[in-house]
Sequence to fold (541 residues):
Amino acid sequence: DPRDAKLSMAHFYVAFTALLVGGLAGLLQVLVRSGKFQLPFGIGYYQVLTVHGVLLGLVLTTFFILGFHLAAVSKTSGTLTNKQRTVGWIGFWIALVGTVMAAVMVLLNQASVLFTFYAPLKAHALFYLGLTLVVVGSWFNSAVIIMKYAEWRRANPGQPSPLLTFMALINTLMWCVATIGVASTVLIQLLPWSLGIVDTVNVGISRTLFWYFGHPLVYFWLLPAYMAWYVVVPKVIGTKVFSDSLARMSFILFLLFSIPVGFHHQLLEPGIDPAWKFLQVILTFLVVIPSLMTAFSLFATFESFGRSKGATGLFGWLKKLPWGDARFTVPFIGMVAFIPGGAGGMVNASHQMNQVVHNTIWVTGHFHLTVATAVVLTYFGVTFWLVPHLTGRTLTKKMNKLALTQGILWAVGMTFMSGAMHAAGLLGAPRRSSFSEYGGAPQAAEWIPYQIAQAVGGSILFIAVLLMVYIFINLAFFAPKGEQEFPVGEATNQAEKAPMVFENWKLWLGITVLLILFAYTIPFIDLIQNAPPGAKGGRFW
Ligand code: HAS
Fold:
């Protein structure tokens, strides 16, 4: 429905504006770190780093996801009602006002607190208020997804919901449970502290509440990519979804295990008993399972498609895939990047190895493979068909070629940049620090060639950003009028109907809450009781 399309497109305009400005800040980052460039006009390193992280890590992702969820649900469960659309628009405007407030504060150097913004770094109160509005706006959007799902269930009793709607709903539920953490630290701790109402905060609690949200946040980014990998890509290559039930099962596992794992970001922090860290490391390895299921399912889809086209030999099926189609190839590059990205994640999560990599630029390399390649290239792959679908235009052959070039440039740039980050990280180079020779220390000298390689990769990536923005503008405003398909794969004929237990939300949300209580209750009590003297004898805030 064109009215639903308008709502999704509004989100995409914000997302791609964030890509342009955030990408420019990324270019400045790598140039500064190469040691060959200094920021002009007194602009601070952390100011630019915050612009980069907030715009790309929070704004681009959140707005793209909200727009994609709406489009997926409207396509597979039916046009939104007027009421649902109004709620969606209210959410959009609230989130946009919040984004502008937060962005202005960051640009004014009043909120150079990085995209993780936990204490002890303190920002201007308007930054926190802006973030609160973004979260509140996203809840309105979540309400639309939940209302549409409920309406579909009422109209189709006993039927499993459409797969894309089911997936969007899981991601929405995960987001709602996770954002309780960030809303709590912002409203109860950071905002009163920034306004001067309290003069200290319990830093341990602030970081724990942030990571309670921060880890599911990365799966909130990932699951829309998985929606495309499971449901859209099979249709694009001309085959069916390998298994509807397997896909649903893996999404449910994400709902259960994404949240009680935040401690794997805090393995080197004091104040948390190692036993609880150990428990959350185990849960982290459980959340790897749905990704391994996804990898299996995707390989199976590609291989069975290739064999159905007559491929022989162990890897003959690779030749049968439609490499000339950017809607397939660009997300595929993302999938390949996710193999080393995911493996790096398992290194991070392994308690002992975390000691080697924590706070080094290896971690930055990890998330540039996961979110900035696997996820973002898939979003781009979706943009190539979704934007013309929504604007009543088509992806021309010429644009398709440009889109392929864009994906390849991104892969080359990221290989240089992320590869060099991983290597320098293993040599001890810290993350989140400007260029320094550390008083001529020989170890720091070893990092410099890698920093130059990062600048080369980052510059290539910036060209790819410009190309992507150009493609987006073309698809939104200038591509020829026509009909572009919204590819929705069907399950294979042999596949059984998905069991209705997958739609038992009392069960899944119940287990989610139990796991969260199990993993967090005692550590929270410890953090409050053992608060350092600065936090005034264990006061929560
Ligand atoms: Fe992570 C830090 C552990 C996944 C993002 N992560 C971060 C940060 C970000 C981030 C942003 O345990 C930094 C936060 C900060 O600023 O401090 N991460 C993991 C683990 C996984 C993982 C175990 N991370 C992600 C994803 C992200 C993301 C996904 C974004 C989207 N991460 C950590 C840890 C830290 C961390 C620690 C803290 C480090 C520290 O000390 O600070 C797992 O979920 C990964 C599982 C993935 C796989 C790969 C499956 C492969 C698939 C592709 C198949 C390909 C096909 C095509 C079929 C097991 C599905 C192939 C075809 C061919 C022909 C080859």
In short: The chain has 14 helices and no strands.
